[in-house]
């Protein structure tokens, strides 16, 4: 039987960069048995997406939170996402032509260039388009050619 989609339980973290080590550790744990190359790529992307969620949104304030989502699509694409608490008023974007002040602000956004290069696609969705209550940023990472997910995966994986 081929699983069309596998969903891991969402993980919630305090919106604090000090949590980055735990985010990486949890991702490696959740993806145990997957090809090392794919896991390392996802950990790099997770580092950038989580840091952006903490730095540029209300998630980085006291009591702010970031939610991590993870799923396997079509048995070969890992989709990693982070939803922040909102508060920045702007959407994540890759730097283009900008003034000096805009470049200084956007310097932290350059990690999205890395996410773009490591993934087959990335993007974002507003949690509620009519209000600034958060943004969900995601990246799709393919499994290396010729590999398969570890045996025994179930459609829903809940860890504790």
Which structural class best describes the helix and strand composition? alpha+beta
Oligomerization status of the protein chains: single chain
Could you tell me the mean pLDDT? Answer: 81
Q: pLDDT under 50 segments (min length 5)?
A: none
- Total helix count? 4
Global Rg: 16 Å
Helix-residue proportion: 25-40%
| Global morphology | globular
Q: What is the succession of H and E elements?
A: EEHHEEHHEEE
The fold-level CATH name is: Heat Shock Protein 90
Fraction of residues in β-strands: 25-35%
DSSP summary, beta strand count: 7
Pfam family, one: HATPase_c_2
Domain Histidine kinase/HSP90-like ATPase: 15-136
Protein name: Anti-sigma regulatory factor (Ser/Thr protein kinase)
Organism: Nocardiopsis algeriensis
Describe the structure.
This protein is an alpha+beta fold and 160 residues long. It has a single domain (5-157), classed as Histidine kinase-like ATPase, C-terminal domain (Heat Shock Protein 90, 2-Layer Sandwich). Helices cover 29% and strands 25% of the residues. It contains four helices and seven strands; from the N terminus they run ββααββααβββ. Strands 1, 2, 3, 4, 5, 6 and 7 form a seven-stranded mixed sheet that branches. Helix 1 packs antiparallel against helix 2 and helix 2 runs antiparallel to helix 4 (111-118). It is globular, with a radius of gyration of 16 Å. The model has no long low-confidence stretch (mean pLDDT 81). Keywords: Kinase, Serine/threonine-protein kinase, Transferase. This is Anti-sigma regulatory factor (Ser/Thr protein kinase). Pfam families: HATPase_c_2.
